[in-house]
Amino acid sequence: MTTRKTVTTTHSRHTVDGAASDKLIKLMEAPYEQTVSVCDSETGEEISRPDRYEIEGYEVLERVPRAYSRQSSATLYLPLEWANKRVKIVRLDP
Predict the structure, then answer these.
(1) Whole-number Å distance between alpha carbons of 46 and 42
(2) In the prediction, which pLDDT does 29 show?
């Protein structure tokens, strides 16, 4: 059984098959509309979608930050060559 999604945009609401891709959902938007939410049609729960970023850079590393005891933040170690350079961090897991 395929679930259905309710896509709410700024000016309309569509119910689509659960297998509908993000590309199809984007095609439903007119140039002046934005997607407000995507919800499961049966439960009404909002389906979270990750943000999409396009970043230009010189090198990519994938690391897992570690939290140490009695700290309120996590630590991520980077190569020494990256010292005094600008970096951007993107969380991949929800």
Answers:
(1) 11
(2) 59
